[in-house]
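Project outcomes to date are best conveyed with an example. Our students and postdoctoral researchers have been running inverse folding experiments weekly, and each run begins with a structure described purely in tokens. The record below, which covers 97 residues, was selected by the lab manager from last quarter's runs and is presented without edits.
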């Protein structure tokens, strides 16, 4: 397995790039996204993932494409899976002609 650094999860990116520098509160972000504050809080701490609907909302409110937000989430989710899935019990199927 190739070792790679942990990618930034979307909530971490949002906090570091948008919220802290521009003094945006979770409540303000939730209102702008038209979602419950709990949903934003979960996203910011990494307890919630960015799904397509949220990606569209983030794109409209913060910029970037919805594909950008989904890609960031996918990279982080894949990295997490690579850290936790036990490959030692898997048996590769060898295909021959």
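After processing, the design step wrote out the following sequence:
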């Amino acid at each position: 397995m190739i070792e790679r650094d942990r990618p930034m999860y979307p909530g971490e990116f949002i906090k570091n790039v948008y919220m802290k520098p521009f003094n945006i509160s979770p409540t303000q972000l939730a209102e702008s996204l038209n979602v419950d504050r709990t949903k934003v809080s979960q996203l910011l701490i990494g307890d919630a993932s960015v799904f397509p609907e949220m990606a569209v909302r983030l794109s409209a409110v913060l910029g970037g494409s919805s594909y950008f937000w989904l890609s960031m989430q996918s990279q982080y989710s894949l990295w997490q899976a690579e850290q936790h899935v036990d490959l030692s019990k898997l048996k590769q199927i060898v295909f021959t002609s």
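The CA atoms of residues 33 and 57 lie 6 Å apart. The mean pLDDT is 95. The training component of this project remains on track.
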